[in-house]
Amino acid sequence: MTPDPWWAFALDPDTRADADANRLRDEHGAPLVNPPGPGGRLGLDYAGYLGLGELLGAGTPSSSVPDERAFVIVHQLCEVVFKQMTFDLAIVTATFERLLGLPEAERVALTLAEGEVDDPDSEAAACWRPAITASNRLRHAARRLLPPIMELMGTGAADDVLFSRVEFAHFRAHLVPSSGFQAAQLRLVQRALGKGPLLDGLRVFPGENLSHHYAGAPCGHVALADPLVLQSGAELASPPETHPSHRAGRLDTVAHALLSALPRLGDDLPPPPAVRRIHAADVDRAVDRFRATLGLSADVAADAEAAESAVDDFRRDLEAAADAENERRDGLDAARAGAYYLQARAPKSALAHILARVAATDDALHSPTDGTFLTVHRRTVRRHVADDSGTGGGGMPYLVTSQRYLLPLFPALVAWQDLEL
């Protein structure tokens, strides 16, 4: 079995349904959890099963300020949710990969199958069940878990203050240069949702503060997934192919491959509209916003020459990312046709359900509209931080730039999106 039991999951319906086959075991064949002792006695307890000793002991506050404990817990809760989301993304990806390995007739039959997820007599339901519940959890986590967690640092009923901005100011300086931009699991979730070009090659984050503290050397703007930013979390955000979580980051790619393997609508019907491209005007708007972020638009940049150089780098990077993305989208004709077929012929199929949930997850995380995770996070930051700078050197202007001008350029499942039937 895998060294990490968390990733030792089974998709085969027969394995899952067999209590002996689905039991995780150690190298000697004994049950990994709750092995029988003398006389068949069992010793598992609640705390041991959940690892509560390690879980509740994690995290060390920097100060004696009571509100800091809420600050730590809020971010830990987010990371626990990201952990589940990463796993669920891997389940969906693995299910799609399994389907791609089936003979065409069997694959098409399963991709068009409908039915209740908990129908015990349906072979199709048994195949799809882990991916359906995983995709449902993804949307639920993005919509209903993450925003309320952040609200623990806002106000409650009757406008009760749950976390004091005054108290936050008493310990915030202790946290330099750490930053929410270092949330590596969120970066992996974003990679799964098609945001890789924004993470790897776009020099958008100011690296001076991080470089000063971590490396003792000067540095300009860097990409969000740069090891300078993520530090010990770099491998979490960009896991090697040998790690099971690498599969999660491939969701967008594998989903498009599965769509490409679907049948086509008849020639008597109109072809689907083309996948939307990133236009030069989109790049220009993002560059203009980046200039404003650096203070160039208002002529308040501390070092105008360095800022102009950063803008030039940003434009080159974004143009290169847009060109590469447009080339990829130009090659998605088969996936677009498959998506068109699925939405026209089997809109209530398990596959259509899952793809819709993944797209909704992307929207619930990243959309600049009210109530999404990044919007609630951004407003929480604004409530508690008087200036624009972040402890890691980013801060409010960079949050706005990313959410409003960059993330919308790279939506998840572009071949699935914007099909009006």
From TrEMBL:
Q: Which InterPro entries match?
A: Trp/Indoleamine_2_3_dOase-like (IPR037217), Trp_2_3_dOase (IPR004981)
GO BP, one annotated term: L-tryptophan catabolic process to acetyl-CoA
Source organism, top-level taxon: Bacteria
GO terms, molecular function: heme binding; L-tryptophan 2,3-dioxygenase activity; metal ion binding
Which SUPFAM superfamilies does the UniProt record give?
Indolic compounds 2,3-dioxygenase-like
PANTHER family (alphabetical): TRYPTOPHAN 2,3-DIOXYGENASE (PTHR10138)
Name of protein: Tryptophan 2,3-dioxygenase
- Species of provenance: Rubrivirga marina
